[in-house]
Each structure stands twice: as structure tokens, then as C-alpha cells.
Write the C-alpha cells for this entry.
Amino acid sequence: MIAKTITAEELGALVADLVSAGTRVIAPARAADGKVDYRAITRFEEAAIGAELPRRSLKEFFLPPTEPLFSWHQGKGDVTVKPVAVSFPPHVVLGARPCDAAAVEILDRVMGWDYRDELWFGRREATTIVSVACPGVDGSCFCTATGGGPDSKRGSDLMMVPVDGGYLVEAVTPKGQAFVGAHAARFVDAADAGTTAAAEAFRTGVRSRVAEHLTLSLPALRRWLEGSFDHELWRAIVLRCHGCGACASVCPTCHCFDIVDEPEGVRAGTRRRNWDTCQTARFTVHASGHNPRADQNARFRQRVLHKFSIYPGRFGEVLCTGCGRCARACPGGMDLPEVLKTITALVGTGASREAAV
Amino acid sequence: MKELQELARTLLSSGTVKVVFGWEEGPRGARPAFITDAANAGRLVFDHRCSHTLATYLSPRRPHMTRLGKAAIVVKGCDARAVAGLLREAQVKREDVVIIGVRCGGVAADPADAGPLTAENVAERCPGCTAREPHLADHMVGETKPEPPGAPTRDARIAELDAMSAPERWAFWQAELARCIRCNACREVCPMCFCERCVADKTQPQWLESSPHPRGNFAWHVTRALHQAGRCADCGECARACPAGIPLGLLNRKIAGIVADRFDYRATDDPSVPAPIGAFSVSDRQEFIL
Amino acid sequence: MAIPAEKIEAFEPRITAFVCNWCTYTGADLAGTSRSQMDPNVRIIRLPCTGRIDPLFIVKAFERGADGVIVSGCHPADCHYTSGNYHARRRFAIFNELLGFLGVEPERLTFSWVSASEGQKWREVVNDATARVRRLGPFEAFRALVGRSE
């Protein structure tokens, strides 16, 4: 496939084209407190691509923090149920980090597993994801350890690599191909060898830097987790965890939700789904009052197990893209990369109850 | 921090306490530490990266903490106010905790910030702090530090908001609260949010909508701010923990101002000073009542 | 947000009043049995004491469509439960300022002490609150707090 380039100027014009055509453009942009969040922009100048990692991931554009499922209205002798739309206006995410784009595709597995989630896939179909290869963030990144990388194309429709004056562009999917085609005038065919080499050097450089942070054998990790449910590690490392769930809220792959019925007056209401997290005490409280995950040790263990053992068991891949947000967001100083490193050391010493294969 | 490490070593090896709550080096700067073995006391540090309040870990609602046994806790002045709050409200018995006061010159907003401490990176509660040497302490460690850099900014910001019209203030707060995703991090890290069953979690009836929409968020933040009135220690954890960057420090500071003005109460690390809520005076101002 | 004048003129405020059983409720009843004419915009919710009124009730009233809220009870020193109204006074002093800080127009909230014999005072409180809320218009800002439509 022929590589293309786009200048920063043309990219700005492309954004203007999209906005005037009614497409919603989402990009990393500064919030009032100076931090970067993914949000809707109307002009390219608002975007802060390649700056700090956005505080939250892309998942909220496919699984919103709160989302109506249907609404009801009670009449004289009947109830009318009004479903929500499952097709959505066009969206473009511009400047997605590869860890965030990959996460969306990983979540497609569970969202299409035993039930095809029309709201998730409706938004997926309406959205084109344009990623930008990541310059790295800090020592908490471990995307390469999870099988991804700062230039991973997974989940992206288009991948852009920063070069002098603009970006090297590669269409990854047919949707990406169509996007380039629809805005062909903005792109320039075929980069020269120097640009391609610069892009390659950028990618390789970041990749090797991030790879130094953590190396994991995902299969060995999974085997250890499956055999170590009662390991004392879970008691030792969880003391500083507040069970606040900030980690789950910023995580690109955490996707648990709660369903609530909200009355509006006496006769009407809305059923919604809202983000939830296994880290809160009441996540597994039964109607009887019994809680099978009665303390934070059990709850943190669950998070690690779900990501590195249960999800891979069911879908063949880990529920983590190594973005490191959990470590950055945690007010108590919990550090997942450190936990994984600790477990890796335990695996190395054969300190699991399963016999070595 | 030799003095602190030595003290911890002594407290642990003598069996006076079973665990010392302090701070240590983590992969991302300073982080809370729970030293149970005197041999590990050397891990304890104290510097401007020790932004966290450890008082939350004293909550009786954390069985995995309480089963460690009697604790010694290192407190900055703001943390001491939080511990005093727990003592005042009978969540912890004074004889069940050893308090190690540490002299403080301010902390960074971000514990990962290597420093130095400047007016730009200092936590918003620090400039102008009058509690840099806790009174509530069984032991005191550390040299007297210089005043935190910078000038207080919250009161000016609050005055700006007060000067706005009601609709302007509404627009400001709605824009801020719109980002809330109801993760409840603010509640979980708060030393004074220790209710066994938070009103937000009640489902029969559902008093507070749990959905992160503007209506639910408004109810939640109004309720939490009110429940913290006269109790908030201004430790800054809620604002630091919020993954959406909501300026909770402004809200809590405003309420502290109301409580100070009307009831002459300021957060204090003296647990014998009664809380203003739960008490009353027959001469409380009632100019707002017809 | 600007509400057109015609809309304000046609608008009938919906006001919820949380009142204590012993003083204000009885006072309101007296106003009724005395055939006092007053604005009919207030729906009364009776509670044992103002001390029992959780500020959350006020938020709930706004959520459910109230344009204004009245909280009323016994005068200081007259509380049937001795000190309930003193606790309420502190609580609502803070709550009133908190809501104002968050941008709720202060005239939407009314606090009063109305005793069992003050039927006329109740009438005045009701008419005064209704007039204030009528001037402000419907609480559109709160109505607009519907769920995110993402």
C-alpha cells in the first residue's frame, strides 16, 4: 500500500472540512486545568496531539459514562417503551494514542461475545480512528509488554507517524482507505526515502525505550495467576489501595457497567447503563448482604485476574494495553507495572503452586 | 530521614506498634508505606513529595488494615487535622494510635514531582499554612522547614466566583461537574468519608441518582460538600484523586469559610474542640430566616 | 438563560414546602380554617421537625420539578423536640450559602419560623415566596440537567 504524507496545514484544513460536513471530530485538547483530555474540537488549533497522554481513554466515546438504554412512559392502561437510536452520526477520532485504539478493538471481543452490543458497535461503525504514533510518556508505559507498542496499528483505521512538517500516513483498514480517498486532495502521494526513514527511526526509538520498562511472558503470567489465588502476595501489595476505582475509570479496557432504572416523575423514566468498577466494596454485594470479595485484597486480585487470566482465557488476549494510566491516576500509589514485575520474578523462582511445564 | 526511621525502628522492635504508616519511594515518586518489620524502617522517607494523607488508612472500615494491629502514623499538619477528625468522631481511639508529627514546608500537588517545590507545583492548600508543625503528636520529627512557596490562590478564586451572578456561577459549576464520572474516588480517599453505608449507595429509595449525568452529579457533590461541612480537614486528597480534575478544593474551602464565618470554627488538629455540626448555639445567626 | 417575558407572566410557580408538624403545619392549618386568601402554589410536606429535614429533600424537590422551596418550623426555643430547629438552623445556614455558591438563585429558597398561632405569617411567607419565584421564572436551569444524550 502506498504511503502518503500530510502537512500540518492540510491536516488543519481536513479538520475544517470534517467539521463543516457535520462530522464530530474528537482529539486530545487542553481542559480548563491545563491537562489534556480527548474531547470534541471544532478547529484544529484546539488539538494537542502528541502532547501529554490524555487523562482518560477513548472508551467513553463508545461506552459513555452514562447511556440511556430505553425510556418508558406509563399511560392509562399501558406502558410505551421508547428505544434509543443505535445508529450514530459520523465521528472521527484524530490523534488517538495506539494504546487507546488497540483497547477499543480488544473490547470488541466482549461486546460481541454472547450478545452483540448494538450501542457499542453502532458507535464503532460510525467512527474512524486516526492514530498518531506515540512519542512515549514516562516510565509507567508498558505497551510493548502487553503485545502492543507505541506505534501499534491495532484498532486504528489510519496510522500517522510524526515527521518534519506533518505526518507519514498509512491506511490500515478499508475504512481508513476510504477516508484517505474521500479527502484525497489533502494528502500527498508517496513519501521520499528520507521521510520514511525518519518515521522508522522515530518508531524504533520509542519502541526500544518503552520495551525497557517491562518485559512480560503473558502465558507464564496467566499460568501463575491461575495457580495463585490464595498467594500471600495479594495481602501484601494491596494495603495502599483505597478501592476508589480511579484506575478503572481511566483504563482504556475496563468496561464493567451497572444498569439502573431512573424514574422521572411517577409515570416515566429511563433505563441507563453507567460505568461501574470491581474495585468498589459494593460491586459484588449480594441481596443477602454477603460479599464474596469482602476486602480490598480480593478486589484488587480480581482486577489483575480479569485482565491477565480470565479475559485471555475467554478471548485469547489480555485486557490491558499497557498505557500506564492506572499507575498515574492512583492516589494511593498502587502500581500495576510493579505488580506485574513482582509476579514475573515469582514466576522465575517457580513460586507458583503449579508444576513447571 | 534518619530521625523518623530510627523512631519507627524503635516503635516496631519494642512492640509498641505493629505497623508504621509513612511514605516510601515508589516507582512514581513517594507513596504510602506500611512498615511492619523494623528491619524495613529504612524505607521511610519524608520530603515535598509526601502529598498523601495517611489518615484514611486508619478507618475502621478497612479490615485488611485493622488486622495489621496497632498503628503509628506519620502526620503533616493537615494530616493531623484529619486524624483529629477521626478521634473527634470516635472512629479511632486515642490510645489505639501513635502519632508521629513531622515538620513540613509544603508538598507538591503531584507526588511524582521530583521538585524543587515552587509556587507553580505546590499543592493549593500549602501556601500560607499555619499548621506546619502538628500539635497532635506523641513524637515530633524533622527540622523546621521554610514556608511553602507561593501565595494562597483559592480565596481569591472564591471571591471571583462570589462576585459573579448566580447564572454565571451555575454555568461555571455545571461545566466542572459535567466531567464527573461518579467514580467516587473523592469519597474513598477522604479520611472523613467513613460511613459504613454512604447515602449515595442507598437504593431503597435511591436518594442520589448514581448516573454520571449533570443532575446526578449535582446532587452528589452538593451532598458530599454538605456532609463534609465542619468536618473537612483540607487534606487535599479528594482534589488530587479526582481523575477528572474537578476543583473540589474550591468547594470545600468555600464551605470552610462559611463555617468559620458563622460558627467561628476552623479545622483543627485538637480533637477536644467539638465539631460545629451536631452542635449549635442559641445565638447562631438567622438573617436568612423569615 | 433568558426566559421570555410572556412565559414568565403565564407561569405559575410550583413550590414545595417542608414544614414541621407542631408549629408551621398547625399555623398553615389555622390560615386555612381562617379562610385566609393566599397563593395556591405551595404543596406542603409535613415532617415531625425541621431537624428531620435533610437538605437532600430540597435537591429532590428541584429534581422533581419544584421552582422554589420553603422550609419552615418552630421559633428558636419553641421546638417540640427542644433543639431540632437549632440543628436545622445551622445545617440550612450552610446549605443556603452552598446552593448560592453553586449558582442557584437565592430567592428560590425560603426559610421561616412560623408558630402554630401565626396563620397570617404563613400567608405572608407563602405569598412572598410565590411572588419571588414568579419573578425569577421557572427553574429552567435545573430542568435542563437531563442526562447526557451521548
